Amino acid sequence: MLLAIDCGNTNTVFSIWDGEEFLCTLRTSTHHARTADAYFTWYSTLVQHYGIEADITDVIIASTVPRVVFNLRIFADRFFGCRPLVVGKPDCLLPVPPRVDEGTVPGPDRLANAVGAFDRHGGNVVVVDFGTATNFDVVAADGAYVGGIIAPGVNLSLEALHQGAAALPHIDVSRPDKVIGTNTVGCIQSGVYWGYSGLIEGLIARIKAEYGMPMKVVGTGGLAPLFDQADVGFDAIEDDLTMHGLTVIHRYNKDNGSV
Ligand SMILES: Nc1ncnc2c1ncn2[C@@H]1O[C@H](COP(=O)(O)OP(=O)(O)OP(=O)(O)O)[C@@H](O)[C@H]1O
Ligand SMILES: CC(C)(CO)[C@@H](O)C(=O)NCCC(=O)O
Ligand SMILES: [K+]
């Protein structure tokens, strides 16, 4: 069985893939100082709690935080006796190499999204991923990741407003019915929700115009369903897209003898 690990700047997600389906998805906050033993304590407690029979033989990691990879490598070696595949490292093959400016290191989460989206939808796709950042990942006709857009994430924007303006409280994003807020919270909610909806809609339109060919738009990440309620232009919402991409990359490396 495969353990797929997606480390974002905010959260780290583990999913167990049995070859046909994900048996579970476990989430913890990302901390570079977490040790291999701490990962295992957390992981084994939850696996036991859910009554999952997991026989992990392989591990794949996509990490946007380079420092966490060190302890995750020890975790894979110590508890599962395997050398993990790390997306973005030279020994982890991708079905199609990215086409970006020389010297650019695309986020491993974006590479996994591109592979996952191509596997499910074919090429000419844009993935909109709501995480710490909101990133738009463009996938060409042949499945190559060819760049996109990085915008500040929704929760980062809310946090920045709270940090930078003494009288503004911290709030959670939600969809206000009205655009014109009549109280402070309503005003912030409108700015972030309707502001972000405009950003997403506008950027999708500009990407499509520049790309010049019809494209599918796939939303992923925790806040995708919330923004779908504003009809921003998603053709599909898939919350497991990054993880799906990791399983496809793992299979590709198995088939091509690199693991
Ligand atoms: N209404 C909401 N308001 C604020 N946050 C929300 C809301 N609904 C979901 N979320 C957040 O979405 C997150 C899940 O999103 P996702 O895993 O895609 O990104 P992330 O873990 O925050 O970012 P990263 O992957 O960059 O670490 C949850 O941690 C949750 O806090
Ligand atoms: C944009 C984020 C932060 C999104 O998780 C991540 O993919 C990242 O750190 N990327 C590196 C830069 C790039 O993708 O071009
Ligand atoms: K993510």
UniProtKB/TrEMBL annotation:
Question: What does this chain do?
Answer: Catalyzes the phosphorylation of pantothenate (Pan), the first step in CoA biosynthesis.
What is the protein's given name?
Type III pantothenate kinase
Against InterPro entries, the record matches this protein to: ATPase_NBD, Type_III_PanK
Q: Which residues bind K(+)?
A: D129
Instruction: Relate the assembly described in the record.
Output: Homodimer.
Question: What CDD domains does this protein's entry cite?
Answer: ASKHA_NBD_PanK-III
Q: Which SUPFAM superfamilies match?
A: Actin-like ATPase domain
EC number in record: 2.7.1.33
Keywords attached to this entry: ATP-binding, Coenzyme A biosynthesis, Cytoplasm, Kinase, Metal-binding, Nucleotide-binding, Potassium, Transferase
Q: Does the keyword Repeat apply?
A: no
Q: Which reaction does it catalyse?
A: (R)-pantothenate + ATP = (R)-4'-phosphopantothenate + ADP + H(+)
Pathway noted in the entry = Cofactor biosynthesis; coenzyme A biosynthesis; CoA from (R)-pantothenate: step 1/5
Q: Where does ATP bind?
A: D6, C7, G8, N9, T10, N11, T12, V13, T132
